[in-house]
Amino acid sequence: MKITDAYDLKGKVAVVTGAGDGIGKASALKLAEAGANVVCSDLDEEKAKAVAEEAKKYGVEALGIKCNVLFEEELENLVKTTVEKFGKVNILVNNAGGGGGGRENIESLTLEYITKIYTLNVFSGIILTKLCAPYMKKDGYGSIINISSMSSDMVSHDMIIYGSSKAAVNQMTKYASYDLGPEIRVNAIGPGAIKTRALASVLTPEIEKNMLKNTPLKRLGDVEDIAMTVLYFASPASAWTSGQVIFVNGGGIQELD
């Protein structure tokens, strides 16, 4: 297979949740650059539409759709709208999520919060997988990429719900890959500390310095680092890769504390 063919997504249709900024935006644009038509969903409709407009500069078709992944009817509408427009779905990037940030003191947790974070990080991805899988199987090409976290494989203070939910994402990825092959591949990416708006809300120069002590590549990650890994999993380049969780973390562990 030629390199140009291995990363060619022309004619494919990709759905990216949480595409308004950060990893989701970078991933949507990278998939568009590779030739995929993209559906950018986000809680913020204006941001979703702005990213879709930016994606069109690569000569593809793109939609921006408001979607709150906490609600099943909005997930159903996202897939319905995608299929009405493009007739199929080939790539799903389950990126929308939340929680963590060292703010999950176990003594103050509520069931409402726990349910919300698990719905954001785990349940929504399972439902979207269920909704998209029939179209992927029908078209004979499917790739599902779940955005996990380094928190799924390490420990840090006050991250119990976020970390455990991302661990569930990893295991869900493995089970889904077992159930959905051979037409559909399912993989996950566990980003380390990536320079996003979410990290900026808790990052200080001291925290960054401490993070880099245990990071061999001596820098924090950029959204492009994750988007390039999304592209690999979405494309024919990873045709024999499924059920895998790859940690993109500069070779180390970045802890908040």
Helix content: 40-55%
Strand order in space, largest sheet: 3-2-1-4-5-6-7
Structural class: alpha/beta
Number-wise, the strands total: 7
Q: What characterizes the major β-sheet?
A: 7 strands, parallel
* Percentage of residues in DSSP E strands: 5-15%
Please state the overall shape, judged from the principal axes of the Cα atoms: globular
> What would CATH call the class?
Alpha Beta
Which blocks of ≥5 consecutive residues have pLDDT under 50?
none
CATH superfamily: NAD(P)-binding Rossmann-like Domain
Domain module count:
1
The CATH topology is given as: Rossmann fold
Question: What order do the helices and strands follow?
Answer: HEHEHEHEHEHEHHHE
Question: What's the pLDDT, averaged over the residues?
Answer: 96
Number of contiguous helices: 9
Describe what you observe in this structure.
The chain is of the alpha/beta class and 257 residues long. The chain has one domain: Rossmann fold. It has nine helices and seven strands; from the N terminus they run H-E-H-E-H-E-H-E-H-E-H-E-H-H-H-E. The chain has a seven-stranded parallel sheet with strand order 3-2-1-4-5-6-7, with helices on both faces. The model has no long low-confidence stretch (mean pLDDT 96).
